[in-house]
Automatic annotation (TrEMBL):
Keywords: ATP-binding, Nucleotide-binding, Transport. It comes from Cytobacillus depressus. This is Dipeptide ABC transporter ATP-binding protein. It comes from the Bacteria. InterPro entries: AAA+_ATPase, ABC_transp_ATP-bind, ABC_transporter-like_ATP-bd, ABC_transporter-like_CS, Oligopep_ABC_C, P-loop_NTPase. GO terms for biological process: peptide transport; transmembrane transport. Gene3D superfamilies: P-loop containing nucleotide triphosphate hydrolases. The keyword Transport applies. GO terms for molecular function: ATP binding; ATP hydrolysis activity.
Length: 340
């Protein structure tokens, strides 16, 4: 995939309309353990993800953003069935990931890999990096011992590491190098989709830019699709073709990156973007400070979940759940302000 095509995607011109992954009406509720304080009460649930739908196209990067606790990481983990969904569908190659057998799921996980936020906690401190990277190849019976070593050496070079790093342990690497190792482990099985959960949030700004540029380079070379999960709007703007904004388990707005930053519609999206530093003072947005605390996902507000903090809330917002409205072909928003 060329750099020109990637740039055209950022302008909303997604030329490859083949859906690679479709998420439909995903719900993930976690039951709350009963204690002496709530033993006689009805079972309560944490509504981490509530009716989220989006599509990931071939070769694009879909950014999923929102503040901590909005359910974006749970969405990514549930897609791979690292946690079982409560309801919904995840269609990949026409099959529902949530309903296939464990053997079929094992094959799907070759095509869909995950890069975690903290690479150090996902690496075995007692194993050399080479052995850690070879492990997926052993599990999936790929190549001989010699061939597996060659594949690992090649992937280390791809992510910008040296061949001697094969023999080192996780504690001998910096944070940026560990994230490269996490990326290498995700790429080792030649996947089609990478789900990345806050992959650069623990890194300083200079290292962040290196990793983001590396991700763009690898995507163009290998024609990968990314689901990029982050709370940092600046980072998501740099790498994403389209963006979905989540609030308290729900997707409230979705649009191509340039469109979303130029014309945000949902009040929550406007508040998020107002906090993004802008070097050009002429285009600086007025800072929007949201009042009140984020509601508990154990007891979300009725109607629109954002109405308790929304400066434009009406009486109907407290009762009616806003439905997704298509403003343009690729820009939709769930807000009563746009019913007309």
């Amino acid at each position: 995939m060329s750099i020109q095509l990637l740039e055209s995607r950022k302008n909303g011109e997604i030329k490859d309309k083949d859906p690679l992954l479709e998420l439909k009406n995903l719900k993930k509720f976690f039951p709350v353990k009963k204690s002496l304080l709530n033993f006689n009460k009805e079972q309560t649930f944490v509504q981490a993800v509530n009716d989220v739908s989006f599509t990931l196209f071939k070769g694009e990067t879909y950014g999923l953003v929102g503040e901590s606790g909005c359910g974006k990481s749970t969405t990514g983990r549930t897609l791979l069935k690292l946690t079982n969904p409560t309801e919904g569908q995840a269609l990949y190659n026409g099959k529902d990931i949530f309903k296939i057998s464990n053997q079929e799921l094992r094959k799907v996980r070759q095509d869909i890999q995950m890069v975690f936020q903290d690479p150090y906690s996902s690496l075995n401190p007692r194993k050399r990096i080479g052995n850690t990277l070879e492990e997926p190849l052993v599990i999936h019976n790929i190549g001989s011992a010699k061939e597996r070593t060659e594949i690992v050496m090649e992937i280390l070079s791809t992510v910008g590491l040296q061949l001697e790093h094969y023999y080192r342990y996780p504690h001998e690497f910096s944070g940026g190098q560990r994230q490269r190792i996490g990326l290498a482990r995700a790429l080792i099985l030649n996947p089609k989709i990478l789900i990345m959960d806050e992959p650069v949030s623990a890194l300083d700004v200079s290292i962040q830019s290196q990793i983001l540029n590396l991700l763009k380079k690898i995507q163009s070379e290998l024609n990968l699709s990314y689901l990029f999960i982050s709370h940092d709007m600046s980072v998501v703007r740099h790498i994403s073709d389209r963006i979905g904004v989540m609030y308290l388990g729900k997707l409230v707005e979705e649009a191509p990156t340039d469109v979303l930053f130029a014309e945000p519609l949902h009040p929550y999206t406007k508040a998020l973007l107002s906090a993004v530093p802008v070097p050009n003072l002429e285009t600086k947005r007025e800072r929007i400070i949201l009042k009140g605390d984020l509601p508990s996902p154990m007891n979300p507000p009725s109607g629109c979940v954002f109405h308790t903090r929304c400066p434009f809330a009406e009486e109907r917002c407290k009762i009616e759940i806003p439905q997704k409205k298509m403003i343009t072909n690729e820009h939709n928003v769930a807000c009563h302000l746009y019913d007309k």
